[in-house]
Amino acid sequence: MDMSFSPDDRAFRDEVRQFLKDRLPARLSDKVRQHRELTKAEMEEWHAILQERNWLAGNWPREFGGSGWTPIQRHIFEEESALAHAPRVLPFGVAMLGPLLQKFGSREQQDRFLPRILDGQDWWCQGYSEPGAGSDLASVKTSAVRDGDHYVVNGQKTWTTLGQHANWIFCLVRTGPAAKPQEGISFLLIDMTSPGITVRPIVLLDGTPEVNEVFFDNVKVPVENLVGEENKGWTYAKFLLTHERTNIAGVGFATSGLAALKRIARAQVAYGKALIDNPLFAARVADVEIELMAMSTTNLRMLAQAAAGHAPMAESSMLKLKGTQIRQAINDLTRRALGPWALVFPSEALEGANDTPPPGPAEAAWATRAYLNNRKLSIYGGSNEIQRGIIAKSLLGL
Amino acid sequence: MDFRFTDEQTMLGDSLARTLERGGDAAAVFELGTGAALLPEEAGGFGGTGPDVLMVFRTLGCAAAVTPLLDSVVLGAGILAAAGEGALAEAASTGGARIAVALDEPGQRYDGTVATRADRGHLTGEKAVVHGAEDASHLIVLATDGLHLVEAGAEGLAIRSYALIDGARAAEVTLKETPARRLGDAALLDRPMAAAILALCADALGVMETAVALTTDYLKTRKQFGRAIGSFQAIQHRMADLLTEVEQARSAVWNLAGHLDAPDRDRHVAATKSLVGRVALQVAEETIQLHGGIGMTEEYELAPLVRRLLAADARFGDSDHHLERFIVLGAA
Ligand SMILES: Cc1cc2nc3c(=O)[nH]c(=O)nc-3n(C[C@H](O)[C@H](O)[C@H](O)COP(=O)(O)OP(=O)(O)OC[C@H]3O[C@@H](n4cnc5c(N)ncnc54)[C@H](O)[C@@H]3O)c2cc1C
């Protein structure tokens, strides 16, 4: 047994570190560290910097213009990026649609859409969830009715992350009547500039309009935008949900979050003592750190299995569960470390016109927002209750 | 043994709830005599006992009403009454005067360290997260030698306001040789602060009750997989645990209400604030989670409730702070 990275992987990690040092603008990493909202242009800027090095699509094979990294290399890249406070690579085009088109798309679709993901011409969003179809995704109702060489789409998607910036959306739509709900679902690529589409922002608890409702009113979609076969969309969506779960544990985010927590707890003083030296608080921090140490090894063990060609199922659910619990615990402790300053909610101060810094320690500007925003971690991508169901089913088979 | 409220307390609670339901604002709340119900007779009121505070603030919390009652009346008028400033206390209790109480300072974390100094009737120092400072007619300021009264607009007084997560507003207050009148020792704070912590906990209890009721309704109506999500046993057990915790919080609030003027008051303050803070966070997190995506949105009714619960824990010492205090008091 040797739990350290191979010499090649260590060399790769050094290369990634050097790249981040040279190419990540402080302007962006400062914003990420302070949990401030990035503009569309800033997210595109980082994508372009990565693409210049051919590092945007770490999970794509080289034949499609990706970096062809191993699972371990992808892990290293994601972890180092998080530690350096790099903006995250938006998953919708790169991590989700790309692999799906590579596996199930036509040659024409691959040629048309994949390069545009890499060069930033297209911004994709994910149109799966609907008001009535969340955990029960197979109950989607948005309909696509064939009319000559078009589908006519009617219905509503919701929770569409960053859909306000997108020019394309990939959707699960209902194309056929079905004996089982999973049948009769198709996977459709829809141009967001088509007539009949309305996007309405939804403001989240932290004050950011991160998600949207997307309405479809008689939207005409050319049949060539159907991926794979009609009524087989569920199979493709499941491929995505189980296969393309990169960075599900968020080890890098947790690690940098823990470092920030310790920094704050060293600076906060009560009764003449740094908070980190308070035995009760120190124990709470130690608890998450111990959990994180074990979880990152779980993550690496899974990665090693994936590298050996084993497709994880219950294991990735465990990583999602533990990973989100740890990150949320870190967010909670960070907010609590700030004591009364955690009450401050400087929504105006962050993005507004006035430049006066919010009162209190610098972290007070984001700690509560980060805590509130990251409640989503246990809800989206298959809620933690759904993950527990998957784990239990794999064990009990009932 | 008798856990019932008096008829007067029940009547006030009922009319307060009705007023808030009709959209009544802070002025309407004062008009009902709510302020006077929070002050003892010696101070021109007709209540001020633990159960009075409990009844009023639990009702306010249920409706998530934002009022200056906690800061201006329970704390402010409470201190003034203890200092023999009956007239101003009474004015605060009717809403005629607004009191903000400036205790914390930048760089301290719940430990009550004070650097603000008084020098021949003038105060110099900085105060942090002072609730309601911008609307106050008077500030009560804690300095190294005790409590002082400062009038709004006094020379050398600067107030920088900002929003808090629970919809209230607070400010950084700077005093630079600001004229002030000494009220007395810091010990004047003891009973009003205990009452304010009871008020905050009772408010949080009301918020939790509303949040749990909202979630219960949602679990009964939201359908996934062809059934109400509340029919899944995993969800039922979570709600059962949550209800049990809220019941504990309710008893903790009752404990403090019953011991507000007892010799072991401080132990009850620590116990109640610690338990209620912990449960408040649990209710906030669980009610979001059990709603799914909708629980994450600003426009849904849960949002202000959740943020108010976070605020309840963060104010006047969080659950860990009071856990430690409980240990210290027990050892004494
Ligand atoms: C910030 C954010 C961003 C998102 N981004 C996107 C996006 O870009 N694209 C997209 O398509 N979707 C997105 N989603 C949607 C997300 O996938 C759904 O919110 C999620 O699937 C849960 O669905 P729901 O919100 O309808 O909750 P529901 O499914 O109604 O669930 C409510 C509660 O019931 C529980 N529950 C449901 N079924 C069961 C069961 N069988 N057993 C036990 N418990 C159960 C859930 O765990 C949850 O606690 C996003 C959501 C959020 C919050």
Automatic annotation (TrEMBL), chain A:
Domain annotation Acyl-CoA dehydrogenase/oxidase N-terminal: ranges: 7-120
Cofactor requirements of the protein: FAD
Top-level taxon of the source organism: Bacteria
Positions of the Acyl-CoA oxidase/dehydrogenase middle domain: 125-219
The entry's keywords: FAD, Flavoprotein, Oxidoreductase
Recorded GO MF terms: flavin adenine dinucleotide binding; oxidoreductase activity, acting on the CH-CH group of donors
GO cellular component: plasma membrane
All copies of domain Acyl-CoA dehydrogenase/oxidase C-terminal, residue ranges: 231-396
Family: Belongs to the acyl-CoA dehydrogenase family.
Protein name in UniProt: Acyl-CoA dehydrogenase family protein
TrEMBL record, chain B:
InterPro entries given in the database record: Acyl-CoA_Oxase/DH_mid-dom_sf, AcylCo_DH-like_C, AcylCo_DH/oxidase_C, AcylCoA_DH/oxidase_NM_dom_sf
Family named by the database record: Belongs to the acyl-CoA dehydrogenase family.
Statement: the UniProt record of this protein carries the keyword Nucleotide-binding: no
Keyword Transcription applies: no
Protein name, UniProt field: Acyl-CoA dehydrogenase family protein
Domain Acyl-CoA dehydrogenase/oxidase C-terminal: 198-323
Bilayer-crossing regions: none
Keyword entries, A-Z: FAD, Flavoprotein, Oxidoreductase
Gene Ontology MF terms in the entry: acyl-CoA dehydrogenase activity
Organism domain of life: Bacteria
